[in-house]
Amino acid sequence: MIKRILVVLGGSRFMDSLIQTSLFMAERHGATLTGCAVVDEDLIDPGEAVPVGGGGAGKEAREQRLGIARTGALEATHRFEEACQAKGIAHTTEVIEGNSIEVLREAWRFQDIGLIGVREIFNYGAVEHDPDVVVRLINHGVRPLIAIDSRGTRLERVQIAFNGSPESCKALRQWAMIHATPEVSVRVVTCGDECSEADLEAAGAYVRDHGVSKVECVRLEGSPGATLLAEGEAWGADLIVAGSTGRNWLSRMVIGDTARELVENTNIALFMLH
Amino acid sequence: MSDHSEEHGGGNAGVIRGFNTIGCAIVVVLSIIGLFFMGHGHQEDHAQGASDQPTAEVVDAGSQATPDTQKPSEASGEVTTKLPPLWQLGTVPFVLMLLSIAILPLIGSTHHWWEVNRHKLMIALILSALTLLYYLIFVSPSTAVLAIEHGIPGEYVPFIVLLFSLYVISGGVNVSGDLRATPMTNTTFILIGTVIASFIGTTGASMLLIRPLLQTNAERKHRVHTVIFFIFLVSNIGGTLLPIGDPPLFLGYLKGVPFLWTFKLFIEWLSMSIVLLVIYFIWDTIAYRTEEKKDIVADDTIRKPLRVTGLANFLLLGGVVLCVALLDPAKPIPGTNDLHPFLFMRELLMLGLAGLSLLITRTSIREANRFNYFAIIEVAVIFIGIFITMQVPLEVLKLKGAELGLDQPWHYFWATGILSSFLDNAPTYLVFFQTAESLTHETGPGILTLMGGEFIREDLLVAISLGAVFMGANTYIGNGPNFMVKAIAEQEGVRMPSFFGYMFYSGLILLPLFVIVTLIFID
After folding, report:
1. Which domains does chain A have, with CATH numbers?
2. In total, how many domains does chain B have?
3. Do B378 and A60 touch (CB under 8 A)?
């Protein structure tokens, strides 16, 4: 059951689909939305090498970028508020200046799930997107989250990436507990011989036990990241569920390669858990 | 330096008037400094001081003994200088100065702090004080005074006065307009910038032309390559032909390289310019064909004739060129037998021209150029530190430079170039200039005689000059105007590549050309 959803208003081309999805989820679960825009000066205004005599020009450009980001953050919250008011969804909004990771970790503490644009987060058109931001958010414990692509989605066709690891099991369980509904179609997918047939069937059974009737289990060949994305596209998935695949202490510290590849390349919404 | 001078990018006439007042105040202060130093020497001193390093003691020629064992050797009749004791320690402030410039803007906790010119001045003064302290403790008080005299009136004042004059006067010319952004128009813009850069400086040419070029291309989607080639040519390579074009060449002039010597680089300048302009034209022609039709239609519709205001400043710029060309205190004024300009006459006249520019230029022109003093103050405060702290390294290079193993022109071209890509090219030029000087001790064919009876091989000087000027284009930080152009382009909505993204372009386009330059002209 989802009662509180944090909507990360990144101000990008993903904003519209993000807001649509959040409204849909709020309606379905009767949840309250919290819209959060962050002006992260470190992201907008990273230190950069400056030649002698270029400091003034650099400062001017950075001030302009910060101005764009502040304006973008305000616009993003206004759009979100208007959409919530139009649907009559309970909501709050805030614009915070600070380190985006810290701000979101703080805001996430009393939320059930977060929705975020899969790319171009918090740059508000001011700078090039740093593709590592979403990955860093996940690494820093801001999860579970759904990273939304540019298509508005009702999240009804769900592809669950499963390799038998504790992380993928945890992602599957978490998704099933908070989002499994009878109208959802689920495909549990594994690549190569990462998990046994029995484990794959057990994963499917677990999802069925959470009230999902349309469940199929599929074994694919190929490298996990690219295969999951290609198969998700072909099947028409609205959402890919993935956990980090770290198997030792070091890899558990950072998001797995497959999850990173998904974040960087997906055109499908991602449910991420690390 | 007032707080007001830290402001920049303002847009109203009051701010510009304030800037002009500050500019006049700076002119007065620099003039007073010039007059003050006039009382401390005469032209012969100046000529000598411009080439001699601070420590000048008589020792055995070629001695590699430790300082304690080195004794004057008047009997031998050989006169040379000795390495200052613990010279490694003496070079630390210079290294710290360069590291401060390179690293402080990158560190999250210091990059805002470093933005303030007052803080840069503080670092420059502290490191200068350390250098002087080194001289006081390990050499002698008189050497410390000599270091100041050599660094400040000898090099810093002429250097900064030239930059200041060019900055103020070129900031009084405004070019505006929105032409059809065809490949021919863009190429012509860059060509004009490449030609005038040698006469008004790469910074002046860049600031003059980048805004109308961006305005002209405002309706086009593909603009990044135009800005990149503009940086290559106008902000760097264009400034090859005169000491006014690029600061390192002016330092060479101060060391005694004749004013028109840089015209010897004409073929290299012409070859690089033609090749790059042809590449650009082809690139832009392809890019133009991929523009969307609606953008081309919009570009055809939105037009504004080209308009140049503040034209009188071109006369003043011509005056600066003449001052530099004719008023070398070490030489008689051309057309006279033995009439030397008095010390700092050149600088005072250039300041006068800058002051005149401030008086006669309409405020609206500087406002349109977003003119302010931040950049020139930044250069002024940092170079105080550079010129003082580099005295020890220059001195060491003068004595030990020959041991570095750099003796081929291509060594100098690439060493100067690679360092100029990442460090300021002015001190880099001086470092390799001094190293090259250390190789030659007598005149002969292909040897240039410098001030104070020093010599330099012309083939090495060509390599150093080309390396410093051409390879400044390799990165955004290779030359001041590179970064200014990038910042202005970004403000106008051009998504410029990252630091390494830009290097991809320069690596792809410039490095192969530099290899060809090496094969044809350097080696």
Report:
1. 4-148 (3.40.50.620), 157-273 (3.40.50.620)
2. 1
3. no
